[in-house]
Write a structure and sequence with these properties.
- The protein is elongated and about 70 Å long.
- With 413 residues, the chain is α/β, with parallel strands linked by helices.
- The chain has 13 helices and 13 strands.
- It has 2 domains: 220 residues, 3-Layer(aba) Sandwich (Rossmann fold), CATH 3.40.50.450; 149 residues, Rossmann fold, CATH 3.40.50.460.
Length: 413
């Protein structure tokens, strides 16, 4: 590499996103990049000329190891939708003016579906104008809903956190007895894809029965059928634990969380903020059955729990970061690095690059055959898919009993 590299992070953070950043930085330096810049708060920050020279912040091998173990987006993130090229050329002219000023040879964006939309548009503008800058997408999302890749970095660690947390919730749910029983409903992220919620099955094992019911958004949710299942379960056991996706919806397409209250916040890409599903279902069951209920929303904990990170996930996140640099250095642009699984047992996985136009704005859902016929559980095929992704641990670097992270001072308004 002769020029400079710039890397940014976009969308919701994960426990592994900074491992990809470490992979980009280390590989770019090893390939001879002069400077590796980091956009602060993604492309939105870049447009305001907010960026740093990463070599001033990552100064040793220990810093690299700390970065791989640091949750959230070290560089800061954003949810910014670039306009259509033919409707607003000035936005692209501004971005490319900044990139040219910094002598950027390679632009790498770590993110999910919306981030790949950014790579698609920037690479299209680059080809349109004859720019030689290479644009590569580096996959990241706990939702695991990117097309053409077996899975996404960030998913394995989130799945491990969910499986562990649901198992602990199940243990807790049997501590106290109530006359009419207790129903605990755990709300899990994932929007319209049930990969995360399905991971609750990982709680099941020789020492745990696992969740009693699992509801994914790929199947229409029926309130009355749900109530009947809970009634039958309470007839034979004192506690029921249910895992539900934040994005489950009724036959008319309405999110269950909207049944209790309106969803007001919508981001730049038109995504509604989905929250309150467990709370609504608990109120519904309590009202119908008169039993004790608990609503648990894992929320940001499932994407920031680096103390439970999967070693496989952290290693693959680092691997795809490096692969993004290699792809650009070999002449690729308008591509995203993908993970290709070669076998489940022993687990083996490699990388390829695919056309980002076939990935951006698409949504990979859980196959219907991996969900039970009545839509209330997942099958063994799902377990076979997810279990290899949670293997191994990444020991935190502990200082005074608390994990140490790589710290970057945050600018204040």
């Amino acid at each position: 590499m002769k020029g400079n590299v710039i890397v940014g992070q976009s969308g919701g953070p994960t426990a592994a996103i900074n491992s990809s950043l470490a992979g980009v930085y280390r590989t770019a330096r090893d390939r001879g990049a002069n400077k590796v810049y980091g956009m602060l708060h993604g492309v939105k920050g870049l447009m305001e000329e907010k960026y740093i020279d990463l070599s001033e912040h990552i100064k040793s091998d220990l810093d690299v190891e700390l970065l791989k173990r640091t949750p959230a987006a070290y560089l800061g993130s954003c949810r910014y939708k670039l306009p259509d090229i033919h409707q607003d050329m000035s936005t692209y002219e501004k971005i490319f003016e900044i990139l040219n000023k910094l002598d950027i040879e390679t632009f790498i964006y770590i993110g999910g579906n919306d981030s790949m939309d950014t790579i698609k548009k920037l690479s299209d503008y680059s080809l349109l104008t004859g720019s030689e800058i290479k644009f590569i997408g580096c996959p990241k999302t706990i939702d695991n809903d990117l097309a053409l890749t077996d899975h996404t970095p960030g998913y394995g660690s989130a799945a491990k956190y969910i499986g562990t947390s649901v198992k602990e919730i199940i243990r807790d749910s049997y501590c106290l007895e109530y006359d009419k029983g207790v129903v605990t409903i755990v709300e899990i992220m994932g929007r319209n894809a049930g990969w995360l919620t399905g991971a609750s099955i990982l709680a099941k094992g020789e020492d745990c029965v696992g969740p009693d019911l699992i509801y994914l958004p790929e199947v229409v949710f029926d309130l009355n059928k749900f109530k009947e299942k809970v009634i039958k379960l309470l007839e034979k056991q004192p506690s029921v634990v249910v895992a539900v996706s934040e994005g489950i919806h009724t036959s008319d397409g309405k999110y269950v969380c909207e049944l209790g209250s309106s969803v007001d916040f919508v981001d730049a890409f038109g995504h509604k903020q989905l929250t309150g599903t467990a709370s609504y279902l608990c109120s519904f069951i309590a009202g119908e059955l008169g039993c004790k209920t608990r609503a648990i929303e894992l929320s940001t904990l499932q994407r920031s729990g680096s103390h439970l990170a999967s070693r496989v996930d952290i290693l693959e996140a680092y691997q795809v970061g490096g692969a993004a640099v290699l792809a650009a250095d070999e002449g690729d642009t308008g591509k995203m690095v993908t993970l290709v699984r070669h076998s489940d047992d022993p687990y083996q996985c490699g990388t390829e690059v695919k056309d980002v136009h076939k990935i951006a704005n698409d949504e990979k859902l859980v196959p219907r055959e991996w969900i039970s016929k009545d839509g209330s559980y997942v099958t063994n095929e799902f377990i076979t898919y997810v279990r290899p992704l949670i293997q191994g641990d990444v020991s935190p670097i502990m200082v005074d009993g608390i994990p140490r992270h790589l710290f970057r001072p945050v600018e204040r308004k």
